[in-house]
């Protein structure tokens, strides 16, 4: 008979080479298994130069793999996101809830640096939410931002030409003067999205929410410690400590890897845009704006 210590080491070595869910049951660890998914970054927004953004298309396979792990006790979500697209946030939320119901598996969310706006919506897909005391949590609101460039193009002597079929097709064009009726229409759209967000949070958190709605849903954000007082999270802690307390010291946290984002090509292609003079990247205007928007999104939370 194989000694216990040697058997354990063999299981450990094999698990480093082969995902444990593919090993025979006799070679798997003795502890409970909890698949872990990282949901990091802005949602539905490109970031410069090569990092992707969270979207349902990008995380669907990861989610499916996590929930299909045989005999898993739960699924854990690690969240580090300042938000972004309401639609992609909601699509990911719905997919997580659908898979949880289908596989009858509890979901735990762990907010790391920030789980705000759409990032908090992702956390609401969990049955229980945990955060670090210093995490940034909340921002249950809707924001739209852009640039007004009318003064700039006048100084440059540029003439803006735009032709549309439909009176509102060029609404809020950054190169045209802002119109009050366009702003009013945008605010109506924001109000509709905000109402949907609030309804989702209420349905997810239920009577765990504390405090006035005017305070909870005005777009403000708090530390994890304060979020606990407001009922926005269920506890303070990290994935390892909480899962050990819940499922035992031998719980096995299995990170589900994200699909590749272009492999070696993403490192080769940017080099084709290096300027000859000084070796600086040749960035397009949309690259620069995307980088600024992403930086501003993280910057709201001091990151």
Q: Structural class per helix/strand content?
A: alpha/beta
Number of structural domains: 1
Please provide the ordered H/E string of secondary-structure elements: HEHEHEHEEHHHEHEHEHH
The biggest beta sheet, please?
Answer: 8 strands, mixed
Describe this structure as you would to a colleague.
Helices cover 40% and strands 14% of the residues. The protein is built from 11 helices and 8 strands. Strands 1, 2, 3, 4, 5, 6, 7 and 8 form an 8-stranded mixed beta sheet that branches. Helix 2 packs parallel to helix 3 (86-103). The chain is elongated and about 70 Å long.
Keywords:
about 300 residues; alpha/beta; 2-enoyl-CoA Hydratase, Chain A, domain 1; 8-stranded mixed beta sheet; disordered N terminus
Topology:
Layout (H helix, E strand, L loop, with lengths): L3 H14 L15 E8 L15 H12 L7 E7 L4 H18 L3 E10 L1 H6 L4 E4 L4 E3 L11 H7 L23 H26 L7 H4 L4 E3 H6 L5 E2 L2 H9 L4 E4 L9 H4 L16 H15 L4
Helix pairs in contact: 2-3
